[in-house]
Every structure is written in C-alpha cells, then in structure tokens.
Design goal:
Layout lengths: L2 H12 L2 H11 L2 E2 L4 E2 L11 E3 L4 E2 L4 E2 L21 E3 L4 E2 L4 E2 L4 E2 L4 E2 L4 E2 L7 E5 L2 E6 H10 L8 H13 L7
Parallel strand pairs: 1-3, 2-4, 3-6, 4-7, 5-8, 6-9, 7-10, 8-11, 10-12
Antiparallel strand pairs: 12-13
Length: about 180
C-alpha cells in the first residue's frame, strides 16, 4: 500500500465527517450533501461510486466495483469486468453490507446489516439477506420503528438509565 492510500485510510477511519467527505471526493467518489460515512472500504475504483444526498453508510460496508475474471486471463490477457455503484438520496446502508458492481440503490431505501446486494434495490424499500431481497416497504418499516420507539433523554446518564429500565426493568443499573 502506498503512502497516499495509507493516509486516505487513516483519514477515513479517524477523521471527522468533514474530513471523511473531503477525502472521499479527493479519491473520486461523487458524494452529496448531509452524508455520514463510517467505512473505509471503497475498493480500488472509488471513482465508480456515486452517493446522493442524506445517505448514511455504516461501519464495515464494502464496495466492490469489479467482478471475477482471473480464471479466464490465460485466454484473455486483458479481460476485466467493472461496474458502477449508485446510492441515491435518503438511504442507509447497514453495518457489514457488501455492495457489488452494477448496483443502484433507489431513493429512500435501507440495506440491512451484513446484506450482500447483488442487484438493484427498488425505491422506498428495505432489503436484507444474502443475496439481499425486499423484506418491507419503507412505510411498513416506519410503522414498526414508530411502534417500538423509546423516548431517550439527551443526557447520556439519563439515557442509560432509561434504556436499562426499559430493557432490564432496573432502576439503578444493578443486576
């Protein structure tokens, strides 16, 4: 790994969000406004990735912009297979997901944790699994989220107490 790539990885891993977004743009990723990015895995062709506005990309998401052609290279020395990846506006990509070449994730979509996205994700949908498939509409998922909502105070100590009480029935945090 050359020094430039190493510095980019460090900025992506430890930088503030402004630094992360600026570094991604320097690497060639086209990225919109109000995005949150927590991964460093943009592959060897980051310029083939486009990310819309208001997108959250969680930890350990992997972008793969090329396909497997090595077994054929004895017959076709320069055979390659590349594909772009597009994530449209207002999406969230869950922890550990893998996005393969040629995929477009439609607007207002969620990709579940550890999913492998092998084909386009329709707008307004939630996908999960390996391979990823539609498991809910955004409307259905929103209803589920609202139904399970817990009011959490902004103060971290109060937030901890509220969550412990909700999930463990404890008022003082003792077991």
């Amino acid at each position: 790994m050359n020094i430039t790539r190493l510095l980019q990885k460090l900025k992506l891993r430890y930088g503030r969000q402004e630094t992360v977004i600026r570094t991604l743009r320097e690497m060639g990723v086209r990225i919109g406004a109000r995005c949150r990015v927590y991964t460093t895995n943009f592959g060897s062709e980051p310029w083939l990735i486009r990310i819309g506005d208001h997108v959250c990309i969680s930890n350990d998401v992997t972008f793969v912009n090329h396909d497997l052609t090595y077994p054929f290279q004895d017959r076709y020395a320069s055979l390659t297979a590349f594909g772009r990846i597009v994530i449209e506006d207002n999406c969230q990509i869950g922890v550990g997901a893998t996005i393969l070449p040629g995929v477009t994730i439609g607007p207002n979509a969620i990709v579940g944790a550890c999913s492998v996205v092998t084909k386009d994700v329709p707008p307004n949908s939630v996908v999960a699994g390996n391979p990823a498939r539609v498991i809910a509409t955004m409307e259905e998922y929103e209803r589920k989220c609202v139904a399970g909502h817990i009011d959490i105070p902004e103060d971290p100590a109060q937030a901890r107490r509220a969550l412990e009480t909700h999930f463990w029935g404890e008022k003082d945090g003792s077991a």
